[in-house]
Amino acid sequence: MILVVFLIAYMVRRRLDSLDALEGDALWRRWFHQGSVAEAGRESDIRNGLVLVAVPAVLVHLSVYGLAFYGWGIAAYPLEILVLVLLMGTPGWRQSVEPYAEAWHRGDMQAAWHHIQKHLPASERGAAASPETMHLALTRTLLLAVFQRFFLVAFWYVVGGIGLAVLVRGLVALSEQWPQAAARPRFLKACEWVSWIPVRLLSVTFGIAGDLSGWLGEARPAIAGIRKSTSDLLMISANGSLTRYALDPARFSRIHPDEWASFGGRSLSAVRDLLNRSMLVWICLLALLVIAGIV
Question: Which residue of 45, 49, 105, 192 is 20 to 30 Å from 165, comparing CA positions?
């Protein structure tokens, strides 16, 4: 049933994303409000955040285990679907990316920037940025958001169950939304550790779902190292797996200057298609694991 549960949750979540509905991050923000006050000198302490993430993870795990123990295992599946729907999703992205692509096509880079500025990290929200820098910042953020809110959740759900998926997704939320900013780098480091295997698996998937020869040249050396950040590895892998310089705006503008106006929309479309194909590969792999009786 693990395959069926994930498929249902994934399809529901994609539909909700298209409607810009049910933002899971809003629930995390409200839950983390309990950590808005910290003692002087302990702003970087992470224990309260870990407790606030561990509590829902343990409760969900115990609920599923309890239902199965008392012979109501079938009732656990709707609960897992609901939790997965809340954990996954990138609502708001489609409503920003489409106007961004239209503004890029018009050549109005200032309007394009304003459409996507809220999605970027605070360090990259400066108003002065070249179109190339702006687009690469957007693509990097999009790749990381989809990875953390779909692929990372899917990996740990299959490996460790719904409780572990909640815990890992909670770490991502802590790194982005914990009220004490001084503690966020420590949560981010934890996210890097739990992402180490999944991001490398996704990198390989990019090669399978995209241009394998290009991926072998660009990303294969990178996945063997341990120092590459999650976002860097995603960008390197996607760049190698995509053709026609979809993630190399500077080179594209030199080789295809007449098509520069359509670059923004075409590049984002290529990235979305790569992510969709990669998720299809993961679903097929999960189906094979289920058939083999491994999961």
Answer: 45
At residue 229, the 3 state secondary structure works out as coil
pTM score, whole prediction = 0.94
d(CA 230, CA 237): 11
Beta strands in the chain (DSSP E): none
CA 64, CA 46: separation in Å to the nearest integer? 28
- Contacts (Cβ under 8 Å, ≥6 apart) of 272: none
Helix (H, G, I), strand (E, B) or coil at 226: coil
pLDDT in tens, 62-105: 999 999 888 888 889 999 999 999 999 999 898 899 999 999 99
Pairwise CA distance, residues 225 & 237, whole Å: 13
Angle (deg, nearest 10), helices 162-177 and 152-160: 150
The answer to whether 112 and 264 have CB atoms below 8 angstroms apart is yes
